[in-house]
C-alpha cells in the first residue's frame, strides 16, 4: 500500500509486499481520489494492538554476530518506527508487512510473564542472561498500557535470574524500583540506544522514540542508581550520523555509560525498499550519496547476510567508522568496564529451598 501524502509520526511510508504471501494489497489512485471527493480518510494511521498466544517466550540466539545467547520479546512490531530497524522483516512471519504494518499492528504477548516463570522453573534450565528486546523494544508505547515488561522484571527478581534490557525509551525509569533491587544482586544490565545528538535527525529516523535529552538523562539516572549502562550507538549510517561518533561517545560517557557498542547499518530483505523510499521522500538531496555509501560498506549492495561482516561492514568508509570508534573508546572510555551478571543465585530460588552442602 502506498499513500500519496507523507504519513506523520511514522517511519515507513508504505507497506511493502509480504515475501511469504501470494497476494498483494494495493491502494489504487481511483480509490484515493474517491476518498478525497467524499472527504473520507483512506487510512486513519491508528495503531492496533493484537493479542497473540505463543507457547514459549525465551528464544535461543544462534547468530555469532549478536552478543547474547537468549532473548525474549514481550511485543512484536514496534511503534517507535525506526526506519532502519532490522526487526521489520520478522513481521512478515506473522503475515504482515515490514513497512507500516510493523509500526501499526503491534502483537501483544500478555502471557509472557507466565511463560517466563515456567521457563525459569524448568529443571533443565541453567541460568544464563536473557535479554529483553532482542528484536523489538520492550518499552515501546504499548508498555504504558499493558505493563508486560514490568511483570517480567518481577519474575526475574523473584527467581534471582540475570536479565539484560535493550531500549531507547525513557519509560524504563518507571521500573527503577525493580531495577534497583535486581542491581543489588548484580542481576541486571541496560543497553540504551542513542543514534544521534540531533533532534532533527532523531525525529525523522526514529519518529516515535523519546527525545535525545531524555535518553541521556535515562543513562544518568540508571548509572547514579548503580545500574550498569551500555550505550548502543547503532546503527551508524554513513552520511546521516557517521560524523557524530566522537560526540555521541563523549555524551554517553559523561552521563555515566560504562561502555558502548555500534553496528554499521545494513538493509536486508524488505528494509532496503522501505529505507530507499523513505530517504528519497525525506532527504532527497542526500539520498543517492547515503545509499551509495551504505552499498560501499557491504560489497556494493544494501543487503549483507555474511556472518562476521554484516554488522561491521568493509571497505574505506567502514574502516573510517572503525577508526573513529577506536579513538572514541580510547578517549572517553579508558578504564571503564561493563560488569558481568551473576548466574549463581538462581538455583536456590528456582527450587525454593537452600541447597545442602
UniProtKB/TrEMBL annotation:
Pfam families this protein is in?
A: Radical_SAM
Q: Give the top-rank taxon of the lineage listed in the UniProt record for this protein.
A: Bacteria
Q: Name one GO molecular function term.
A: metal ion binding
InterPro entries cross-referenced by the UniProt entry: Elp3/MiaA/NifB-like_rSAM, MJ0683-like, rSAM, rSAM_sf
Q: Which residues form the Radical SAM core domain?
A: 64-301
Q: Which CDD domains match?
A: Radical_SAM
**SMART domains, per database record:** Elp3 (SM00729)
On whether Nuclease is a keyword of this UniProt record, the answer is no
Cite the PANTHER family for this sequence. SLR0285 PROTEIN
**Name of the protein described by the UniProt record:** PA0069 family radical SAM protein
Q: Which organism is it from?
A: Costertonia aggregata
Amino acid at each position: 500500500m502506498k499513500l500519496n501524502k507523507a504519513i506523520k509520526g511514522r517511519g515507513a511510508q508504505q507497506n511493502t509486499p509480504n515475501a511469504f504471501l501470494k497476494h498483494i494489497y494495493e491502494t489504487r489512485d481511483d480509490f484515493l481520489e474517491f476518498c478525497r471527493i467524499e472527504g473520507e480518510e483512506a487510512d486513519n494511521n491508528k495503531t492496533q494492538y493484537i493479542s497473540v498466544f505463543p507457547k514459549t517466550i525465551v528464544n535461543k540466539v544462534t547468530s555469532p554476530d549478536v552478543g547474547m545467547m537468549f532473548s525474549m520479546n514481550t511485543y512484536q512490531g514496534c511503534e517507535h518506527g525506526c526506519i532502519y530497524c532490522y526487526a521489520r522483516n520478522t513481521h512478515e512471519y506473522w503475515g504482515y508487512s515490514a513497512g507500516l504494518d510493523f509500526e501499526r499492528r503491534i502483537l501483544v504477548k500478555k502471557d509472557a510473564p507466565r511463560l517466563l516463570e515456567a521457563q525459569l522453573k524448568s529443571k533443565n534450565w541453567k541460568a544464563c542472561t536473557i535479554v529483553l528486546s532482542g528484536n523489538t523494544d520492550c518499552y515501546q508505547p504499548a508498555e504504558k498500557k499493558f505493563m508486560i515488561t514490568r511483570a517480567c522484571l518481577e519474575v526475574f527478581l523473584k527467581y534471582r535470574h540475570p536479565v539484560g534490557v535493550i531500549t531507547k525509551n525513557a519509560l524504563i525509569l518507571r521500573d527503577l524500583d525493580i531495577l534497583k533491587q535486581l542491581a543489588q544482586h548484580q542481576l541486571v544490565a541496560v543497553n540504551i540506544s542513542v543514534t544521534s545528538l540531533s533532534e532533527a535527525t532523531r525525529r525523522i529516523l526514529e519518529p516515535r522514540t523519546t527525545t535525545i535529552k531524555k535518553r541521556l538523562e535515562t543513562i544518568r539516572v540508571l548509572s547514579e542508581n548503580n545500574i550498569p549502562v551500555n550505550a548502543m550507538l547503532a546503527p551508524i549510517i554513513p552520511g546521516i550520523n557517521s560524523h557524530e561518533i566522537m560526540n555521541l561517545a563523549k555524551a554517553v560517557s559523561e552521563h555515566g555509560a560504562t561502555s558502548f557498542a555500534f553496528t554499521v547499518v545494513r538493509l536486508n530483505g524488505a528494509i532496503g525498499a522501505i529505507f530507499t523510499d523513505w530517504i528519497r521522500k525525506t532527504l532527497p538531496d542526500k539520498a543517492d550519496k547515503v545509499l551509495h555509501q551504505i552499498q560501499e560498506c557491504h560489497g556494493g549492495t544494501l543487503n549483507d547476510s555474511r556472518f562476521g561482516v554484516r554488522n561491521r561492514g568493509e571497505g574505506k568508509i567502514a574502516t573510517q567508522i572503525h577508526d573513529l570508534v577506536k579513538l572514541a573508546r580510547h578517549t572517553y572510555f579508558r578504564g571503564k568496564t561493563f560488569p558481568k551478571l551473576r548466574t549463581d543465585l538462581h538455583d536456590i530460588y528456582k527450587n525454593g529451598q537452600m541447597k545442602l552442602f
